[in-house]
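Bug #77: duplicate submission created two jobs. Keeping one. Sequence:
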Amino acid sequence: MDRRYRDVDFLRRRYADADQSAGDIADDCGVTKSTISHWLSRHGITDGAAYERTQCDNCGDYFRYASSLRAGTYCSNACANDQRKRQVAVECAGCGETFQRRASLDTEYCSIGCWGQEIRTEGDFYCGIWNEQRRKALEHDEFQCVECGISNSEHNAQFGHELDVHHRVPVRQFAKWDCPIRDAHVLRNLVTYCRTHLPDAPGSTTEPE
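Kept job's structure:
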């Protein structure tokens, strides 16, 4: 990579004297146009027209950013992460109780149990042998999420409830097939997940990449 673009005399000769565009200089140096625009502005050769000035939504500091490359919301990754970790109080759509979740997530339920009450069809799919089979599934998976390994006690401390036992084939599918509901609770159809990795978790429970 040609780093001459950082030199003020080089940029002035190319941009002002030779009338080359930022894009042409970028192509010659093997960098992006926004990089050249940044150094042109930094050296005072241009007025920084390619950049906008705004205030960070998290810390309040003013910063400059290229609107063509990113949104002018946060001045740094640290500020963006602070906001994602911010806790807000939300009323559970299932039980009506208030619970805490990260502001960046959109789940409306305090637990998988409350969410499950909303999607069950007529009849109680979780009676009879369910509690016994759930316990066996937890024991089979050593009371850990099969995806990330978080323990039952750690999960309870973080989310306020135990690990979830998930049906690989949904219970409601057995009802549609007119199969005995107890068949849905066989051990080979059960797997232990945490709230973050539950395949059909309500809303977003993980941060965007």
